[in-house]
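Retro notes
What went well: the complex prediction finally ran end to end.
Inputs used:
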Amino acid sequence: MNSFGEYLRNRREQLGLPLRKVAAELDIDTSILSKIERSERVATKEMLPTLAKTLEIQEKEMEIEFIKAFILSDLGELKFLKSGLEETLNTIKSRK
Amino acid sequence: MNSFGEYLRNRREQLGLPLRKVAAELDIDTSILSKIERSERVATKEMLPTLAKTLEIQEKEMEIEFIKAFILSDLGELKFLKSGLEETLNTIKSRK
DNA sequence: CGTACTTTTGACGAATTAGTCCAAACAATA
DNA sequence: TATTGTTTGGACTAATTCGTCAAAAGTACG
């Protein structure tokens, strides 16, 4: 199970960026970003645009990864998650 | 936008149950349930089985309502929520 | 090895959130 | 309107989460 933190770390290391740089862009302490990458803390959705820019990832892909991790970590053990997601999609679509 | 709290309240009133009864089943204070129904507090997923039983709703339907409310309230404003949910569904399906 | 840089750890206080308790407000009805 | 039961609000405490900071640990390289 890949976490959002691992995803961030992989990409950051691909680019050879230090935590310090990315954390500065996010305006948070280096230690917090370190913890986020190791899943000791959670990223907020407000961080996504900056993360996308800094790590040179499409905002869409970044959001998708975030959403996946968020849902699976909070709701992953529910019995009817699949149905719940399908229903949520229906709701979204029908009120576009 | 219907909240999970409204959903619970509607059903409870349909059955003519007082907060006191349902709260007792959940082993929480009446005032907390009142707040949950008015969206001042949030229900936890641990409450779902008891809520389903007490309010005589299929656990599946209860979970689905919970999931919808949870996702929409936390992630509702994201630009690519739809894609995120689709991707999450794919992930779930592919590792069944 | 020594130096400089990066990352991790943990102590600490601040802020947020959850729960208890009880009194006040509200509702229904005799 | 009195009485009884229901619901809400707010004060208070407890628990959880969040961020800062600095020291320790790890890494690379002269």
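What we learned: Chain A has a mean pLDDT of 93.
What to try next: split runs per interface for comparison.
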